[in-house]
Amino acid sequence: MPFAKRIVEPQLLCRHAIPNDEGLLFEDLCSVNNVALSRTLRQLSDLAKHASSLFQELENEIISTNQRVWVLQNKIGRIQQTASGLDPKQEAVRDGGRSACEMVGVGVSSHTPRHAGRQESLGCTPSWGGGSL
């Protein structure tokens, strides 16, 4: 869960202590409305500043992600060009030190039990040099 970066709460628009002896905060209703509207506009301005900073951070993250994706696309493109230029019949394939017989399962221990007197003949000899199993 992400941490809160900003706390945005509505503020009271027209609450003030009564400044004069008569108990009148404002002289008339028009001044009360003007104060309330100006404070509302100030809150909207603050909200717009928060929204702007949120969208700026989002834009920075998107730009960063776009750059990483661009680098990955370039790498994939180079690998595709290299792979398309290779001829599979001319290139040697490394088998990790295993012989062809080991790759097909002849001469290696497998999950199926083998009989002691039986020899599988695929034209390969086991890699340890013995002719029978």
Nutshell version of this structure?
It comes from Aldrovandia affinis. The chain has 2 helices and no strands.
Shape verdict? rod-shaped
- Total count of helical runs of at least 4 residues: 2
Helix content: 40-55%
Computed Rg: 39 Å
| Element order: H for helix, E for strand | HH
- Biggest sheet features: none
GO biological process, one term: lens development in camera-type eye
Protein name: Nance-Horan syndrome protein
Organism: Aldrovandia affinis
Region (Disordered): 109-133
Describe the structure.
It is a single chain. The chain has 133 residues and is mainly alpha-helical. The protein has a domain at 27-81. Helices cover 47% and strands 0% of the residues. It has two helices and no strands. The chain has helices at residues 29-85, 100-104. The chain is rod-shaped and about 100 Å long. The mean pLDDT is 75.
Secondary structure: elements and pairs:
Layout (H helix, E strand, L loop, with lengths): L28 H57 L14 H5 L29
Features:
single chain, 133 residues, mainly alpha
